[in-house]
Amino acid sequence: MTGQANTSGDAAAPPPVGADLRISVNGAWHALTVDTRESLLDTLRDRLGLTGAKKGCDHGQCGACTVLIDGRRVLSCLTLTVSLDDESVTTVEGLGLPGAPHPLQRAFVEHDALQCGFCTPGQICSAVGVLAEAAEGRPSLVTHRDRAHPGGSAEPVITGALPLDEEEIRERMSGNLCRCGAYPGILAAIAEAARAGEGAR
After folding, report:
1. What is the mean pLDDT of residues 4-10?
2. Domain-embedded: residue 201
3. Residues 190, 136: one domain?
4. Which residues form the 2Fe-2S ferredoxin-type domain (predicted)?
């Protein structure tokens, strides 16, 4: 056995399976045929040229690929595009315009909440989701029990908008990592937007 590989157990990889779908990205509808194994992140970057969402870990652990689907934040590297027929996706490119940035984009600049900028698109999209969650009254793991469980009820109950203090912001943003350590600025930017009642749009 010199120089020859044993191929008796090898099988050819199955061909990709395509699926047709329509998806709205930043307000524009796209008709696509995608590999059923294709992630939303790859669709956005490779097919639509939207490179704001970053491929950091590609395992759902860093948050750099965070986007919004119907207003809720998701990790696009773990989301199959084929599951999004007729859904609405918003990336960081769809949040604001160069002359009219989104309130959170403006706050990130004002509070120097970025250094290399690689994680920033995911941080901002996640922060938009955080403000929306709090506005809807969705509790987190650190939401004070008397607010999330009125009357001592066992199940969380939506009772109106929840305040976003430092503990709440840290917990809700814990899935978004910053290798540069710009967390103080990120926290300050989100807190400012929360106080102003901006950003959850």
Report:
1. 58
2. no
3. yes
4. 19-95
Same domain membership, residue 109 and residue 158? yes
d(CA 106, CA 112): 10
Amino acid at 199: G
pLDDT (tens digit, 9 = 90+) per residue, 128-152?
999 999 999 999 999 976 555 555 5
| Half-sphere exposure in the Cβ direction for 62 (13 Å, CA) | 17
Q: Of the candidates 47, 63, 94, which is a domain's last residue?
A: 94
- Does residue 54 lie within any of the structural domains? yes
Cβ partners under 8 Å of residue 125, min gap 6: 53, 66, 67, 68, 73, 90, 91, 92, 95
Nearest to 122 by CA among 167, 58, 35, 193: 58
Asked if 71 and 140 sit in the same domain, the reply is no
Range of the domain at 120: 103-196
Could you count the other beta carbons within 10 Å of the beta carbon of residue 191? 17
pTM of the model: 0.84
Q: How far apart are CA 91 and CA 137, in angstroms?
A: 24
Q: Which residues pair with 68 in a beta bridge?
A: 73, 90
Give the distance, in angstroms, between the CA of residue 172 and the centroid of all CA atoms in the same chain: 12
Contact criterion met (CB below 8 Å) for 172 and 140 = yes
